[in-house]
Amino acid sequence: MKNRQQSDTTDSDLARYRVIAELASAEMHEYRITATGEFILEWVVGAEIIFGVSDAELQQRGSNSFLLPEERSKSEIREQAYHRGERVEFIARIVRPDGEARWIKVVNQPFLEPDTDRLCRLIGFSTDVTDQQRAARALTASEFRHRTVIELTPGFVCEGQLNSDGAVEFTWASPSAKDFFGCDVEEFNRLGWRHFVPAEYAHLVLERIRRTRAGQDTIDELPVRTSRGELRWVEMKSRPLTGGDGALRRFVALTQDITERRTNEELLRSQAFAFANMSEGVILTSFRGSIRLTNPACDAFFGVKSGELIDQCLSELPTDPPLVLTPDEIKSAVERFDRPIHRALRVQQRNGTTLSLDVTLTPQTLRGERFWLTVMQDVTERQALEREVLEITNREQQRIGSDLHDGLGQQLTGVALLLRGLANKAEQLAPSLLAPIEELAKLVNESIFTTRTLARGLTPVTFDRGGLAHALQDLAHRSQITYNIKVRCNADAESQRQIHDPVAMHLYRMAQEAIANAARHANARRIDVTLTQSANRGRLVVEDDGDGIDQTGTSAVNGTGMGLRIMRYRASMLGGSVSITNDPRGGTRVVCEFPLGAAQ
Asked: C-alpha angle 79/84/86, rounded to 5°?
């Protein structure tokens, strides 16, 4: 009778538990632990709610059969806690018979025998927490994305609210805000925004507050002073956040440090102003010579409108001579991308004015692409002034040479004749005076030779002595004697008829410098000087068989040596150009090309 009553009590309890399980959408269970430590599921209610099976099937299979393998490995740790009498709560993933994976929360309370403290029973319940877990995971993922976006966003993000009195109070800011200002949000709010914004820019902040209260987005740039005393420029973008009633609740702002950008913009504006207003013409071309960019000064040189030269080829510009690079110059630029190339050009403008330009081409690399940067300087007035100075110098040299030849030279010649007559008389009347008189006559004759040499050096080219062709022949003869090497001259007499005296003087001095360089520095044994003409242009060539120029240095090629610079300068005075290269056969080749019939 007593066992019958116990059974009825158990059935009654199970009925109550089943009602509770249905109301709580939970599963309840009780385990009996044998003396050998085996867990036997004595009863269960609500298995259909959690596991998707009947109570009998769950009792037969056991709850562990629904756990994922990684969850089963944790059972041993939980059993140890049960034996210590500890209540255990855990969340685990199960797979129901229909294949659906669910999250469940399990709470188990162990019961120990009073006398032996042996675990005898385990009562607990399980609830489905799949929706909560998904929400928590979604929240975690959202927080991660939010944190990642904030960390990756340039600058820093902050959130704040506007008090009723219009004051700004920040409630949150990303960590980089503290790094920027040197203080946290609490310190910033205590000091107030006016502490960080210069007084002359406070009106911008007040205007931002007004627009934010009006529900408008704002974007402004203004300077702020950090706690470290640094003045930085920032760009602030803010957006008001309103509630369902349309009332302003708070605002979110993104602040970026744009100090470096502002500095670069100021630099670019300064460079653009200088580029647009500089007196030198500038052309940027591709490495193949296609024009990409010009400045106003360059457009003015060629008398064209802005942009009219774009996409034209550099060699197509109306210059004399054409702006064409030699294969050697291009090869040198490819091998050594730092060597400028110099040119002297003339440009005939549309109004008939001729400009003299000093041109420098420098190879550049921009964003991995090679370009030519061409800078043109108008040297017309400078050359006219320099030409006048040279002409004055030449005329003064001619005057001094003429005075030496026609004045002092003639006077010394007269003295020599008088001494010759005096010597004849002394031979008859005073033989003892003959020797001193002859010695004096010898000194006078040497002075006459020196005077004529000085006069010839000051005015080596004169038409009454055969012009440039004769002067070059004489230069070759005297150089052969001076340097003890073979010097030959082949000068076209017809060419010199179109060469004016000032031009002839420049050509003579260039030949003189080239011969001296070859003899003194290149160990030359043979030098050839050639003067020819072709169409309306003349050519002076000086070739030697010496050591050649140093291709690894820059003095010969770029004209940093004084003598070579003067040669290039003289060529520019003629409206021509000079090239100094190594001859493939050995030695150095100096070529000056110039227009015939050039003005004096």
From this structure: 80
Cα–Cα separations (whole angstroms), residue 106 to 32, 88, 92, 114, 359: 17, 8, 8, 25, 88
CB 254 within 8 A of CB 234: no
Query: Is position 531 within any domain?
Result: yes
- Residue at a domain's end among 232, 262, 292: 262
How far from 55 is each of 39, 41, 59, 76, 528, CA to CA, in Å? 17, 11, 6, 25, 119
User: Are 123 and 192 contained in the same domain?
Assistant: no
Give CB contacts under 8 A, 24+ apart, made by 473-476: 475/508, 475/511, 475/512, 475/515, 475/529, 476/515, 476/527, 476/529
- The rounded distance, in Å, linking the Cα atoms of 103 and 10 is 30
Q: Where are the beta strands (DSSP E) in 485-576?
A: 486-491, 526-534, 537-544
CA distance 425 to 333: 78
- Domain match, 102 and 197 both: no
Q: Which tokens hold the place of 320?
A: 């004399």
Domain count, the chain: 4
Which letter does DSSP use for residue 243 in this model? Answer: -
Structure tokens at 455: 């006069």
pLDDT digits (tens, 9 = 90+) for 221-257: 999 998 888 899 999 898 888 876 777 778 888 888 9
Whole-number Å distance between alpha carbons of 515 and 588: 11
Terminus-to-terminus CA distance in the chain, angstroms? 148
Whether 585 is covered by a domain: the verdict is: yes
Is it the case that residue 553 has pLDDT exceeding 70?
no
Q: Which tokens go with 137? A: 């995971």
86 plus 163 within the same structural domain:
no
Do 336 and 227 share a structural domain? no
Enclosing domain of residue 66: 2-133
Unique residue bearing structure tokens 């001494």:
419
User: In this structure, what is the dihedral angle of CA atoms 558, 560, 565, 568, given to the nearest 10 degrees?
Assistant: 0
Q: Which residue, of 325, 353, 378, is where some domain finishes?
A: 378
Report the C-alpha gap between 80 and 566 in whole angstroms.
102
The structure tokens 């188990």 sit at 108
> Is the same domain home to 475 and 597?
yes
Does residue 429 fall inside a structural domain?
no
Q: Is the pLDDT of residue 309 over 70?
A: yes
d(CA 487, CA 547): 17
Instruction: Compute the distance between CA of residue 138 and CA of residue 62 in angstroms, rounded to an integer.
Output: 32
Distance CA 388, CA 594 (A): 19
Q: Which two structure tokens, joined as six digits, stand for 132?
A: 């909560």
Domain assignment present for residue 248? The answer is yes
- In 200-340, DSSP assigns E strands to 218-225, 231-242, 248-257, 281-286, 291-294, 319-320
Q: Which pLDDT does position 296 carry in this prediction?
A: 92
- Is residue 236 within 8 Å of residue 220, measured between CB atoms? yes
Please give the average per-residue pLDDT across 521-550, as a whole number.
Answer: 87
User: Does one domain contain both 286 and 363?
Assistant: yes
pLDDT average, residue stretch 484-511? 81
Eight-state DSSP code of residue 525: S
Query: Are residues 273 and 250 in contact, defined by beta-carbon separation less than 8 angstroms?
Result: no
pLDDT digits over 85-98, tens only? 999 999 999 999 99
